[in-house]
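Thread: Phytanoyl-CoA dioxygenase family protein, structure

OP (GT): Posting the sequence first so everyone is looking at the same thing. Length is 257 residues per the record. Can we get the structure tokens written out before standup tomorrow? I want them in the notebook alongside the other entries.
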Amino acid sequence: MGYIKSAALEETGYVVLDRYNKEIDPKEWLDIEYVDWKSSGDTRFAPLASRDGEIECAGFWSGKNPRTDKDGIWIDSQTALAPTLTERALEPGANVGRCRIIELQPNTYADCLYNLHQDDNNRLNPDGTGWVVRGFFNLTDDKDSYFVLRENRTDPSKETRIALPAGAQLIVDTQRLWHAATHPGNDPRYCLITSWTSGPELDAYIEKYNGVNHVDSYEVPQDQLDAGQAEQTRRLAARAAALAARGQAEQTVMSEA
């Protein structure tokens, strides 16, 4: 039967929406509670909706009620402090699984390439239902930062780099695409990440905000791109060698993040 997927994401695996142009009080992402959860860099997460309604980041397929990344339980103590962000996550009307704010400390392009990962969004997802994808709403004005998307983790030939100013909005099939963010600078980057179920509601939302599935990549000097790729190759080889020395193989499973 296959899964219900958004046609807008079929070709490239992502869409970029119109920029969000309203003011949001930074207290909505600065004053809520974070947990120390590592994903593609030095990160913390502040969950707004989680598996059990607790301030934690566990995968929905674990615990007492294992399920796919759907039917997240909203955390009243968190959503009360972030009403605008909660409203934005609910606006499409699509089923919401995990919904959280990520805090990413500064990193380099090489760090980003090393941390490229795919998400495990659809474990236990019944055939014939909506495919889970993720929305990314950049909250801080990170003009020198960009999201990196690749079909193949180590192949830069079709890399897409999406700029991350305040208000940048994109939806990504993160189980298909390898992804991570490059964030130079001194201050953390904050972004709202929401797991949505594909279907007519999400399709209508993408259309409403003029989603496009091709954008010009954020420009980065070629020598920086080449150096980052060389460093990714070096780090991955070093990790594989270290694992081999311990009799272990490189893990190819997707990230729980």
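GT: Both are above now. Quick notes for whoever picks this up: The first helix runs from residue 27 to 30. The mean pLDDT is 94.
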